[in-house]
């Protein structure tokens, strides 16, 4: 009997290689974290070429997060011995193990740690970097003007950038192969286009809660190698792993679940959310100022545009819409509480829209956040929407000298908002994760304000720009193990709304059901 | 003595970790020599190769086969607990960048340093830091707190990475001349060949994209990793 040289063999009996082409659907910022740059958030570039770099760790983080959310729900921590941990490797420290003081026990627990069974390669974009600059500024909710020192700019990758992805799953002897495969399938399914949409559920990069970094994978290629088989082992050894991207003469699959031969049911999905997908039209011109002036002669201010399939399209950015919604929500809560409960307002708004403790108001924070709160990401996801069928027109404006009543010298300026045409439309997508009933009520009020044109978006609203008009909305609710889909429609302006259930056989009173959420909001604010 | 060369082409940025960092600059520094040239220690390379070989041997389904190849592996890489009898037949050198490049630049750096020694005010035109910085870059990453969705406290790390597409070479020496007619010797070479082919990821963060490499084995004349005879020899049914 020959002794093994050591008994630490991983006993990898199978290797599964998965490849796909990731396409970005909205601008994406994969930041480099470089502090000394002209732009506040520069892109991460490949080291030897002018291509963008999507690191394996970024993809891993996104997939890990998606799988955990799918299996457990939003905003929960990882624990040892979960599927996520088995597939993506153990964490440095689990929060329930941090306080163990016994060194021996610590070492014993630590010795169970395992590395990730899923290898994820770095990916370099197929084409050179095509950038888009996006300027943003924070608006002060009280004065409704730009906040001081709150302007920043982002360097974004254009929509349409492609990244070749490559994964390799190692199956060790004695491991639970079916559940690992299922985990991988669920995680990768997050990259597949959602039914009826072009984008997947996973977003990459920063500000993904404001619509950046949406992406999808259309086709997968899967190789399975059983290393105990002589021929398949040879195939793996000869596999041309140095070529990136899909192999031209190898079958492709549109569904990763089918390619890996696993069946996924919807009942495993533990996420709770309230999604609103609404179609709007423009009731007035719209102007969201864009930072980048065009190279040739351009008006002083031009509406924000972004590239989609190489074409410049006017957009309603997620950051802009979210800001407007945040301030209106604040106003609604203040109104309902008759401005008597500023702390309640702050809590509700922060809980939904996220926040960063502002050092400028340090003393105020110490008053409010007794428990020294940390920053929090937004639970409301606001996507960026492309506005279809619009025209660009330039408006010349002057300022009037208050003293003489004549035009102010040197104060002629021109603006280029977008104007609605007959069939102008845009789709708004909002998603609130882990919603409380009263928060849904607040969201409905926001939707109503947008719908009726009471809540203008973008700039120059005081001269009548930025009003929207609702056409239809689909509200998908999945809360407390129950899933409902409600539809609100308005055929013509000034006609009454039709509120109905998507399921034609349902006899529930839909309007009453929606009223329930508003009542909950009132109850919460009366507490 | 038989001499072979293993060529490692970096397909992605790579960190050959040194186990320490530079305060205020990087948390994870790469292994580099006094002229600033990054390299992979032969000791590490041997560990990586032997691990890949052992992984391949361990999955052989036929018991006799496995015993045979385990024996070959033991002879090739040795068994822990050194005595003359258990010593491996193979000796690996550090995997370095091409030696002509290194000697040329080393000579320049040495001469610059000499000038600096003679004249304290002299500013060297080329230092080891320049070399290291021209061949590497720094990459940062944080973890995201799953509960709040923001970056987790104290999780920002920076690691130096060696630029991709660089080629490192390591010399492999066998203690004795390999006999073309000896089955065992040819098996040894076959095992080394498949181990080299299986070695695809090296260094830190290798499950997360860093350190993706392509390795190939050469004898004086040709590339052995392209020779199907050696690849098929491993684990064949006798």
Explain what you see.
The complex is a heterodimer of chains A (527) and B (238). Chain A is built from eleven helices and 20 strands. With 527 residues, chain A is an alpha+beta fold. In chain A, helix 1 (56-72) crosses helix 4 (177-189) and helix 7 (318-336) packs antiparallel against helix 8 (342-353). Chain A is globular and about 105 Å long. Chain A starts with 11 loop residues before the first strand and ends with a helix. The two termini of chain B are 29 Å apart. Chain B contains six helices and six strands. The longest helix of chain B has 20 residues, at 99-118. Chain B is of the alpha+beta class. Chains A and B meet through helix 1, strand 3 and helix 5 of A and helix 1, helix 2, strand 3 and helix 5 of B. Chain B: This is RAMP superfamily protein. Chain B: It comes from Anabaena sphaerica FACHB-251.
Nutshell version of this structure?
The complex is a heterodimer of chains A (527) and B (238). With 527 residues, chain A is of the alpha+beta class.
